Amino acid sequence: xxxxxxxxxxxxxxxxxLLYAQLRQANVQLLGAGKRVSGxxxxxxxxxxxxxxxxxxxxxxxxxxxxxKDIVNTSRLNTKLPISPQKISAIIITHAxxxxxxxxxxLVNNGYNGKIYSTDLTKKLALIMFEMMLKSTSxxxxxxxxxxxxxxxxxxxxxxxxNRIKRPKKVTFERNELQDSGLQICKVCLDIELQDIARLFxxxxxxxxxxISRDISVEFFDAKHIPGSASILVKLNLISGKKLIYITGxxxxxxxxxxxxxxxxxxxVDYVFIESTYGGKSRVLPSDPFNEFFSDLNKSLRNNHVxxxxxxxxDRTQKVLNVIxxxxxxxxxxxxxxxxxxxxxxxxxxxxxxxxxxxxxxxxDESLSMSPAKLSPAISGPIVLLTPSYIDQLDFFHPIVEKxxxxxxxxxxxxxxxxxxx
Length: 422
Ligand SMILES: [Zn+2]
Ligand SMILES: [Zn+2]
What we know:
CATH superfamily of the largest domain: Ribonuclease Z/Hydroxyacylglutathione hydrolase-like
Strand order of the largest sheet: 1-2-3-4-5-10
CATH architecture of the largest domain: 4-Layer Sandwich
Structural class: alpha/beta
Bound molecules: zinc ion
Number of domains: 3
Helix content: 25-40%
Number of helices: 13
Shape: globular
Mean pLDDT: 90
CATH class of the largest domain: Alpha Beta
CATH topology of the largest domain: Metallo-beta-lactamase, Chain A
Radius of gyration: 25 Å
Distance between the termini: 81 Å
Largest sheet: 6 strands, mixed
């Protein structure tokens, strides 16, 4: 009898220990953005829960090789999983730029089913970016279903349109090859894929601690980099004592017109991972950093030129619009400027910004798409044309680029990083 009781007590103690075992160890490993700018991903490997902070795409940045080769290598790298989706049960994201979140569609496509934690605004912006990616960014080689006569390809077995096909054909492509082959992913399938990502999100407010396991909690600090952006404080309640690990993500300069103020930071931390891309340069700021932009733009518009401004669809496009508005308010730019935003994704981001900020000039023409047939005749100066920045990789848009580059009446304004080899 006594033996039995001892056994039961031992069993109870063991199971209580297993249930409530305190965190013993945690390792952080950089899966990207080490000695390079892009591909941010921090892998937390602990004995309670494994998770990622950010899960970004790589950009071509191997300067000593040819640009074309770099693009091919980079897109190979971007179809490789950063980690097995079954190994992790949470992804915490700092902000919606693709070099921080762009590998999430690949993870979800390969079975990731854990939570994605972000601010509400980051979720909204991230879903716009994912929609853009799912249309045309390679997730590796995939087999699609199509009917003989349609240019639509399907990915989802539950798609009603796919299930109406009488004699379904299988075709194998990478998503980035679809457009040049005259094919398009079906809208219903795209929507299912997007919902599969959206349902994983759990949104978190700034400066609230939330638990992701018994001894691991997280707090978001406003990073003032882009709307919704956060630096992330991971709080580990280790058996050896508490440890605070801070991952800055990209942080704002404090000079932003749209997001006012400096980044918020915690009072104490034990370890910091800093994104230091521009940290090594000390720069003297002119008293009005936009005067040069205003005077160049004025000159071009006075000469009835086409001003082509390639810029990132998320945040840079909106910043350019905001600076034009500022110039108009300060009477440094004409009241009426013909501004066209043509990227579908940029327009969607504009709409989200509209809900939070009065950032753009009164008249911005968003009626045209990037399709050259309609856009080409509409390009005549004076006009400011805002397009996405990685335009060199969009073959279908090259007629427009050619038209602008060949004309003597056009100017190119660079407002952000552009690969010098592109
Ligand atoms: Zn960023
Ligand atoms: Zn479909």
